[in-house]
Amino acid sequence: MMQADTEVHKGLEGVIVSESSVGFVDGQAGRLVYRGFNIETLAARSNYEEVAYLLLYGHLPNQKEFENFKATLRSTMELNTDTVDLIKSIGHKAHPMSVLRTVVSYIGAKDPKSNSTDLKDQEEMSLRIMSKFPAIVGTIARASKGLNPVRPDPKLGYAANFLYCSTGSRPDAEQEKIMDTCLILHADHGSNASTFSALVTIATLADMYSAVTSAISTLKGPLHGGANELALETIKKVGKPENAEQVLSKMLANKEKIMGFGHRVYKVYDPRARILKGFAESVTHKNGKEVLFQTAEQMEKVMISKLGEKGIFPNVDFYSGMVYDSLGFESNMFTPIFALARVAGWTARSLEYVKDNKLFRPKAKYVGEIGPKDYIEIQKR
Ligand code: SDX
């Protein structure tokens, strides 16, 4: 029998766990592809709903397919009163990511289809979950400020409805384009931690609500989706460009991780960060916060000079917070916005995987006492 591989691949680093045609991350070339389209092309020319369709179904929709898809999403985007009441009951106390996790789980508990493992039902659940995210995340944003909910407007697109449900005002074309592009950039990203969580869950033939709840729970962590909130806090802590060298040197000397930098796959500049950096520069200039951007840019220069050789560059989380901040969001809403986008990748990859399913069951290398040991009664220990 072949000698089993006894090497431990901590964090599954470098281990290929599945095949997928949904998207590809080229960490050496700094290239991100969704179904063969470069992220730059989609960011410039597409919109989030079209990209969600592309990720889910493998091709860009024609006009009829697109209208049907949008109509399906709009038909279930409203929240029931009890769901709104749940958000209002915990929305001003708990972190918005904890509220989001709770709400998706609650909606799933009420959905009779959530006991089905039928592929068609899993796909319907995927669209129902995605359709409700703009209203769920928008209502959470308002509840965290003690504001009453705003019902989604069926005439608005996914990104615009999220802004409308969050602020109570319909966004202008520029605000909608910025948010829509941010959602495209965050829609999918290979076998990242939260997507992997979704796969592990769906592979047990659990329902899509369970898979998305697993993914939301995983995205919350500061080493993953939670980094955007902390990255902006670090930029504000540095305060001005001339402080960057000293503050970062001290943090690095203390072995602190600088949020928004480094990546398990990208060993060059994250292509999403390039696009977000452009938005960050224009929105901070527009709202008179140029110093914030200049500070971030100097931090980038310092980090690349110190750690660029180790393949540490800005990632998607470094500039995104500045963009959301300029759109009026509190920093604790940055990761829920990440989830609002990633729900497309989570569901697309879960549906793809479960069609050719295999339960995940890795091993752990046992390094404990092999025994067998004698059992000693408690009175004699
Ligand atoms: C996302 O996987 C995805 O695709 C994720 C994502 C997506 O779209 O889904 O792209 C979104 O999660 C982006 C990453 C957001 N997280 C952060 O910005 C947190 C800060 N980054 C680091 O924690 C780190 O870079 C990771 C966790 C992202 C990746 O780390 P790895 O690949 O596990 O590498 P490592 O932690 O083992 O670090 C290798 C070396 C270490 O130094 P040495 O011990 O070798 O001396 O690089 C150093 C680390 O200390 N290092 C950093 C650093 N990142 C790595 N040092 C300072 N600051 C950092 N940010």
In words, what does this structure look like?
The protein has 381 residues and is mainly α. It contains 16 helices and three strands. A three-stranded antiparallel β-sheet has the order 1-2-3. It is globular and about 70 Å long. The structure holds s-citryldethia Coenzyme A.
**Into which percent range does the helicity of residues fall?**
55-70%
CATH topology of the largest domain: Citrate Synthase, domain 1
- The separation of the N and C termini measures 43 Å
**List of distinct ligands in this structure:** s-citryldethia Coenzyme A
Fraction in beta strands: under 5%
| Tally of discrete structural domains | 2
Number of helices: 16
SSE topology string: EEEHHHHHHHHHHHHHHHH
Query: What is the CA-based Rg, rounded?
Result: 22 Å
Write the layout of secondary structure elements.
Blueprint: E1 23-26, E2 31-34, E3 37-38, H1 39-45, H2 48-57, H3 63-75, H4 81-90, H5 96-110, H6 119-143, H7 158-167, H8 173-185, H9 193-202, H10 208-219, H11 227-238, H12 244-253, H13 271-286, H14 290-307, H15 316-326, H16 334-354
Helix pairs in contact: 1-8, 2-16, 3-6, 4-5, 4-6, 5-6, 5-10, 6-7, 6-16, 7-8, 8-15, 8-16, 9-10, 9-16, 10-16, 11-15, 13-14, 13-15
The protein binds s-citryldethia Coenzyme A.
